[in-house]
Amino acid sequence: MIALFQVTAQTLTRIQQTEGSVIGEGVLVFHRPGLDALAARLAPMGHNFIGAPERLVDTPQRRTDLEVMLRGPDGVLINVTERA
Predict the structure, then answer these.
(1) pTM to 2 decimals?
(2) How far apart, in whole angstroms, are the C-alpha atoms of residue 71 and residue 17?
(3) Which residues, 6 or more positions from 20, have their beta carbon under 8 angstroms from its beta carbon?
(4) Read out DSSP for 2-70?
(5) Which tens digit of pLDDT belongs to each residue from 21-60?
């Protein structure tokens, strides 16, 4: 999957690669059920989600997948989504 996202309505500042995303950086995207179970499995290995899982759109008309981000062992940004 190759996707291009634009984040708006936020003040973008330069951040360290381990604390978020950098404009133009690649992201691996995986679909997986059970984000809570994934978080519990990764925590003992020292991997934590960057923020809480959230839906980008959650309205009566449209509900997107639940998604969360984390960094892999090599610093690659990973987005994990749970189908709505």
Answers:
(1) 0.64
(2) 9
(3) 50
(4) -------SS------GGGS--TT--EEEEE-S-HHHHHHHHGGGT---EEEEEES-BSSS-BPPEEEEE
(5) 566 677 888 898 888 898 889 889 888 888 888 888 888 8
